Here is the input.
Amino acid sequence: MYKMWTVFLVALVVTVGRAERDYFLMTNASSWVAARQDCQVCYGELATVTPESARHLLEKLQNNSRVAAAWVGLRRIVDGSAVVPSPPNTTRNQSQWFDGTAPWFLPGSRPGDPWFSYVEGRLPWSRWSNGDPVTFHNWYPGRPIPKPVLEPEKCNPDGGLDDPDTTTPTPPMTTASGSTVRSGDTCPQLETLLQCVDDPTARDALSRYVRNQTSTVDPSEAVTAPGINTNPTISADPTTDPTTDSSTPWTLPTRPLCPSDPIEEGLNEFVEDACLVLLGVGWWWERNCSEELPYMCYEERFHGLVNVSGITYTSANLSWLEAPGPISGYRVEVSSDSNSWNETTTSELTTELTNLTAGTQYTVRVFPIKCGRELPPQTASFFTQPGEIRNLRVTDVQNTSVTWSWDRPAEGQVDFYFLCLSGSPCRKINQSAHLDQPINGTIPDLKPGLEYTVEVSAEVADMSKSGPKKEGKFFTKPSFVANLTFNHIHDNTTGFEVKWKPPIEGEASTYRVDITYANGTAVPSPGDKNGLIATSYQQSLLNPGHEFIVTVFAQVNNTVQEGEPVTISAYTVPHPVTNLKLSANAQTITASWEQPDQGGYQEFALTLWEPSVGKVRNETTTTLRHEFPKLKAGAEYTVEVFVIGVGKLISTSTSRPIYTSPNKPRNLEVTNQNKTCVSLQWDVPENSDNVTIRYDVFYEAKFWPDNHGKNDTTSTTHTWCGLRPGSTYNFNVNVFAGKKHSANETRQGKTDPNVRNVTLSILCSSGTSGNCDETSSLLKQLRTKLVEELEGVYLDLKK
Here is the structure.
């Protein structure tokens, strides 16, 4: 039992591994041998019935209303053996053990085993005509009829065989109920069966049932399986094969319980040369192999391969596998969405396709022709190479993106395009809605000022073929320069210098500088301002005091590609004022000047300096004259005048010093004197506080012409010595500032006298009587005369 199950499981493995098969119902009635020969020549073999194939076989039968049964590939014994090797052209899976040897149930696995050889050749219905083991049965109940076993002849010890006529008849069998079952009342098989029933009650009931059934058998009460057509007619299908009208229909009779029933005479007899008939309802039935019936063939499905090579714009080479069996030729079918045609049938395994359309998908089907029919095709699908794009061009360039445009290929079809940037994934660009319009593709996320290479190609839907790649190079726009500034050049009022830094992001190889006057007038170009490598530029030969517009561009690609401009205003330094004039009084300085000899200006800036203090005032004006009021008297000041040009650039200064007019000293007085010295004291002039004032101090005595003096001092006190006693002096003090002097502050001072008595005698004579009597009047006149003559010398005249 263990070995039997092992065989069954292995057989199932073989069945599962079977290749895919196609089944064919042949309606031209033939004997089993002729049917098998036809299947082997034009297909593969007669069909085998497995749980997997049964459904397909029954569909074939049930779809043909004129055929209810057909030969399949099972014969009771083939050529004296139940094992039939597969035909040479039949491909099937070969099973083997893990050690590489064939299983014991396959032919030749154990050639030296006499037991296996004996059994192998005597197992009926054990192998299909292709050599596969029979692992599945669906016989109609009671089928197949087994080969009858003949009873051996009995030997008489006294000589000769026993006389059949004198043979003791089989004794009747008594059932449990007392009824007797005699020989001949039932089938011989049932008599044996009844002998094997141990339960008397069951044996009695079965005996009575069998006796009643065998005594009255009505063909209308024949036992049939549910759903079986008990009267099927098998004939060839004239619509399929009109030459098979000679087939002999036959009828499946009812099945009696015993083959000895007179109604079923011959139907239930054993058939030595029996072959399997598959009924349309799925049951198996055996018939004589010489009968002519429709038959069922199978063929291992041929899965070929079409190889497409040498694909160009308009041609391709095809090659395919050789199909098994008697192939008379191959029909090649080529089609596209817009066109299809069949090539002439060829016996070769290659062909060349020409006059194709570029970029088009073609489907190829190669049908092997076998016995006048076409096998399932070998198929392939391919695209011809698309054409080359035309007129690749850049239509827009930005700092971080570029847009390319191109025209579709002159001929053929295109599904989409690849716009590929070196070092980056390709971008898929769809076809334009209108075929006459250019195709545009944009590449983002680039870096400014760098050179890139792109490739554009036409593509087909499955990306199996690309058109010739069209290459293009480009630079993205550089970014803008950073930190653009200008500086004026020292002692240069006709030029300036601009400086900048390279762009923060990306690259720049050169620069261009553009300079114009603010009103748009061009400026002279002392040098080339394009393609500069340095990050600075000096401009000269300009008018002083003007505004200019300076624009700097970053460049790449040999100055062809320029970035966004960066613009600033630049200015030249104005010329200074000319002919500066100053005037002043005690409190105000007035400045006047003339405008610069050339160039422009906006306004004037004036600075007033006081040496002892520093900067006093900063003032501006747009006129050519300006006053500084409320100043200190007698003070030294310096006035600086600047020209303020556009851009708040300031010219060099023009300056002049000046003193305000001084005021005279105040409150001059003599504070002390003696015979030879006089001390003086005074106050500073009005509005001259905190001003360093210089004073001129001098004296004079009219009577003594040679006695005078002068002194320069910053003090407000002074003592004169070396004076003459008893003399009157005029002391003067004034303020001088630069070349300016104030009015004198004057006081008289007297030295103490050195007194000496001098007696004067006067003789009076007069023609008039009494005139000499009035001496007082005379004395008065004398005193007046002496005072005048002595001019301040001490005199005390007494009578």
Remarks:
- The chain has seven helices and 45 strands.
- The chain has a mean pLDDT of 79.
- The helical segments are 2-16, 32-42, 51-62, 114-120, 188-195, 200-215, 775-790.
